[in-house]
Structures are given as structure tokens and as C-alpha cells.
Specification:
heterodimer, A: mainly alpha, ABC transporter involved in vitamin B12 uptake, BtuC, 11 helices, 73% helix
Chain lengths: 290, 234
């Protein structure tokens, strides 16, 4: 095989990995602030994917243009879910939170099956087969747009947490819950905002990834698992870690597809997870637990 | 200004506050003294809206605030300098102070209040960009007080502000509380340091096993034999 192939596949994996990273970023934000593990994360992602597919099929709207509206929709869903469902569970034991989120996940998967059936749905954009040649390297246009869109959304989120007063307030909640109550932050609303932002990441990632992947309802649980692998690899609670983990897993999957067979890609993603757990249990960018 | 009537607070089956009544007059320093586990922190946190009472009434300037969530109580001008300081360790000093000013009542005066806090604690201005977790205990206490003042409170409840601090810093801290009171801030002071807090207080309550067992002016309690024996070791 010519050397360019490796580079092509690596770049393709990296770009896909950025979208994975955006998805995992949502999981990381939710866990980091609300301390609830969103076991319905991938399922919410498939909901966003189906919304993008329907908008494209019925109205001809490009998923990349619909990325922000879909993110806004998922934000609203996440906000409402936290306010109505999850806030009452915050003080309960972890296993009942787990049951709640698994229930949500199962309802979502089966709801999608009822509405859309089990067959794969796809989006065929006009630029689906475009590509750019950079020297000897050929970059798939769709994946390039997808990767750039993911970077854009992630950067906006980082800026929000760094500079916006509400973003700082969310970090304060994550930092010291009692302290947040003491200074009079409205913690329940900030939790809802965090879950909404996490869901918005998934909404954006879902809208982007339909350009690359065909959607079926069972993709939900697979993405939930993938998001976990990425977040644990990158470091639980670290936002840059989630992005880095996404890139790493995206690269690994792509290279595994090239060297072995595409169906072996999950095996290599899990191998990375096992290696990280063995040698750096807190994740690549995670802080060591004391 | 603040009235507490027959307040009862329980953790499961354990009653931590058992029928406490007290009154805080506008402009006063009111001391609450008592041993560990007497229910002082529970009392403060219930007034602040962080815990729900099983029974009783809390009124602020005549309005019932019993059971209001903490962010609403804070926005009515009841601030708290909590036990253990409760700063945000990974946020910078400046960000910590900004968090105190998130209340609707204080949002528009953030710049002026920040100047005031930096004037009161120049050390915080020096360390504005530093993560709060890297500050010394005394500096963190300054930050906790400064953060509370950013919310423009009319009444501040200080929960063990001298705990774990060096004696010279304790003196400075208590002096700061006295100065703030002279500028018009109503203070509730919960302190292990009974002698000093009784000297500072215009009114004081002794809390034992969740009940008020003694109350009076600070001077009366300082002269009381039971207080002298139990808390002053005389």
C-alpha cells in the first residue's frame, strides 16, 4: 500500500474522532457538573440524528445548517429532563439514578424503532463525494466539514465556561456544591442548564455525524458505550480530555479498519480503554483521585 | 430584623434543632455559642434555606421566609460565611468574588462592591488571578467574607470564622466583623471562641442539644456562672 493511504485514513479517523469528542464532551459536562451518569447519551444522539435525517428528507435542509437548531432543540429537551426527571433524583442513591437513565434510554430506542423502523436511514448531500487534494493527501469534504463543525461547537462551549458568568457559575457548582448554595446560586437551574448544554453537544454531534454514518435505533446503546470509552480514556471530568479521547478513539478505529477489518474497530477502542485503565486509571488528562 | 420561632430541624430521626427561638435586631451583633453538635450550623443553614425545617417560622423584616430556597433567601439580603469557608478551589479569587455577585440584587453594583472588597482585603487584589485552592486558610477566610459582601447583604451569618486560623489572624478577622457592623451590617456570629464573641455581641444565645438554654446580653452571659464554667473554663 502506498504511504498516502495511511495518512488519508489517519486524517479521516481524526476528523471523525472530533465528532466523537464533541459527543463525549456532552457526557463529560453532564457528569462533571450534575454528577449523574447519562446512560441515555447515545440514545439522545440517535434522536438528534433522526431529526437531522427527517429535516433533510422532508425539507431538504442540510444537516450542517441544521446543527445549531438541532442543538437548541436538544438543549431544551435536556433542560426539561433535568428539571422534571433528574433533579428529584439528585439526592437518591446512584443505582436509582442508573435505573432512571437506563429507562429513558430504553424508551428512546424503542420509540425510535416504532416511529422509524429498524432499517438504516441515510443523508445524501450534494457534496457527499467531494474531496480536497492537499498535495498527495485526499481529504473527504464531508468529514472535513464535520470535523470543523465539531471544533467550532467545542470552542464555543469552552469559551462559554471560561468567560460567561453563567459558565463560571456552572463551574462553581461543579467545584463546591455547598459553596454554590452558600453564595445563593440557583443550583437546580444551573444543573438544568448543564444537562441542556450536554444534550446540545450531543444534538450538534448527531446532526454532524449523519453525514458520515447511517442511523439505526440500535446505534444509541453503541454510542453510549463509545462515549464512555472516550470519556474514561480522556479523563473523567476533563473537557479537553473528552476531545482528545475522541480523536484518539477515532484514529484507533480508522487504523484498525485499515490494518485488520472495519468490524474489528471496537475491539481496538476497548484495548485502548484497558491500557489506559491499567497504566493511567485517571485517564490521559484526568486528575488523580485523592 | 430576623426572627426565628420554635424552629425544629431533623436529620432522619435525629433532631438537631429542637424548638429554637431567637431574634436578631437591625444593626446588632448576635452571638450563638455552644459545643460541637449543639445544632449551631444546622440552625444557620436552615435560616439560609439550605435545610428545610420540620416545624417553626423564620421571618425577615416581618415577611415569612420559612422554606424558601437558598438562592431566594440570599437575594433578600441574608448572606452567609459558611463553616469551612466553602470557596471554589479551582476558580480564581476574582471568579470566586464574581460568584458572590450573581444575585439579582447585587449584579449591577459588582464593580463598586469589588472595589470595596479589595479595599477591605488588599491581599485578595494581589491574588486576584490565583486559584482559590492555593490560598492560605486566612486568605480563604478573607475570600469567603469578601465573596459574601459581593452579594450586598444586610445581614451576614458567620459560622466559625476563626476555626483553624492563627491567633493574630483571628484578631484581625474579628476586628473586620466589628468594623463591618459599625458600617451598618447586622451580624450573627457563631464562634468556638466564646469569650471574644460574647464581648463583641450585643445579644447572645447559648445552644445545647438543639435548644436555647440561656440568652441575654453578651455582658450578662459573660458574668453568668454556668457560662463561665462550661465555656470559659473558670
Amino acid at each position: 500500500m502506498p504511504a498516502e493511504i495511511y495518512l488519508n485514513v489517519a486524517i479521516s479517523g481524526l476528523l471523525t474522532g472530533l465528532v466523537y469528542g464533541l459527543m463525549a464532551l456532552g457526557l463529560s459536562v453532564i457528569f462533571g457538573v450534575v454528577r449523574v451518569v447519562n446512560f441515555a447519551h447515545g440514545e439522545m444522539m440517535t434522536v438528534a440524528m433522526y431529526v437531522a435525517v427527517v429535516l433533510f428528507a422532508q425539507l431538504g435542509l442540510d444537516p450542517l445548517l441544521m446543527m445549531l437548531p438541532i442543538a437548541a432543540l436538544l438543549f431544551a429537551v435536556g433542560y426539561a429532563m433535568q428539571m422534571a426527571l433528574i433533579n428529584p433524583f439528585i439526592a437518591r442513591p446512584e443505582h436509582s439514578q442508573f435505573m432512571l437513565m437506563v429507562a429513558v434510554a430504553i424508551i428512546l430506542v424503542n420509540g425510535l424503532l416504532i416511529v422509524f423502523g429498524p432499517d438504516a436511514q441515510t443523508v445524501q448531500t450534494s457534496y457527499a463525494f467531494d474531496s480536497f487534494a492537499v498535495g498527495p493527501v485526499i481529504v473527504d469534504a464531508t468529514k472535513l466539514y464535520a470535523g470543523l463543525a465539531a471544533i467550532l461547537v467545542a470552542a464555543a462551549l469552552f469559551a462559554f465556561f471560561q468567560f460567561a458568568p453563567l459558565g463560571k457559575a456552572i463551574r462553581a457548582c461543579a467545584d463546591n456544591y455547598t459553596g454554590a448554595l452558600v453564595v445563593g446560586l440557583d443550583v437546580k437551574r444551573l444543573y438544568a442548564l448543564s444537562f441542556g448544554l450536554g444534550a446540545a453537544c450531543v444534538g450538534a454531534a448527531g446532526a454532524i455525524i449523519v453525514l458520515i454514518v447511517d442511523v439505526t435505533p440500535p446505534l444509541g446503546p453503541a454510542y453510549t458505550l463509545l462515549a464512555f470509552i472516550i470519556v474514561i480514556t480522556g479523563g473523567l471530568g476533563s473537557m479537553p480530555g473528552a476531545l482528545l479521547g475522541g480523536i484518539l478513539i477515532g484514529l484507533t478505529e480508522a487504523m484498525a479498519g485499515l490494518f485488520f477489518t472495519p468490524s474489528a474497530k471496537s475491539m481496538f477502542a476497548f484495548a485502548i480503554l484497558v491500557l489506559v485503565l491499567l497504566f493511567r486509571p485517571q485517564g490521559i488528562m484526568g486528575k488523580r483521585l485523592t | 430584623m430576623l426572627t426565628v420561632e420554635n424552629l425544629e430541624v431533623s436529620y432522619g430521626d435525629v433532631r438537631a434543632v429542637d424548638g429554637v427561638s431567637l431574634e436578631v435586631a437591625e444593626g446588632a451583633i448576635v452571638a450563638i455559642v455552644g459545643a460541637n453538635g449543639a445544632g449551631k450550623t444546622t440552625l444557620i443553614r436552615t435560616i439560609a434555606g439550605m435545610l428545610r425545617p420540620a416545624r417553626g417560622r423564620i421571618t425577615l423584616r416581618g415577611a415569612d421566609i420559612t422554606g424558601l430556597p437558598s438562592h431566594r433567601v440570599c437575594n433578600l439580603g441574608v448572606g452567609q460565611v459558611a463553616e469551612g469557608r466553602q470557596v471554589f478551589p479551582s476558580l480564581t479569587v476574582l471568579e470566586n468574588l464574581e460568584m458572590g455577585a450573581m444575585l439579582p440584587r447585587a449584579r449591577n453594583d459588582q464593580a463598586r462592591n469589588l472595589d470595596r472588597v479589595f479595599m477591605l482585603f488588599p491581599k485578595l487584589a494581589e491574588r486576584a488571578g490565583q486559584a482559590a485552592g492555593t490560598l492560605s486558610g486566612g486568605e480563604q477566610q478573607m475570600l469567603a467574607i469578601g465573596r459574601c459582601l459581593m452579594g450586598k447583604p444586610d445581614l451576614v451569618m458567620f459560622d466559625e470564622p476563626s476555626l483553624g486560623l492563627a491567633p493574630t489572624i483571628v484578631q484581625a478577622m474579628l476586628q473586620t466583623i466589628r468594623d463591618l457592623n459599625r458600617e451598618g451590617l447586622t451580624c450573627v456570629l457563631v464562634e468556638q471562641n466564646v469569650a471574644v464573641s460574647l464581648k463583641l455581641a450585643s445579644r447572645a444565645y447559648v445552644l445545647e442539644n438543639g435548644r436555647v438554654t440561656l440568652s441575654g446580653t453578651g455582658e450578662e452571659l459573660l458574668a453568668d456562672d454556668r457560662v463561665r464554667q462550661a465555656y470559659l473554663g473558670m
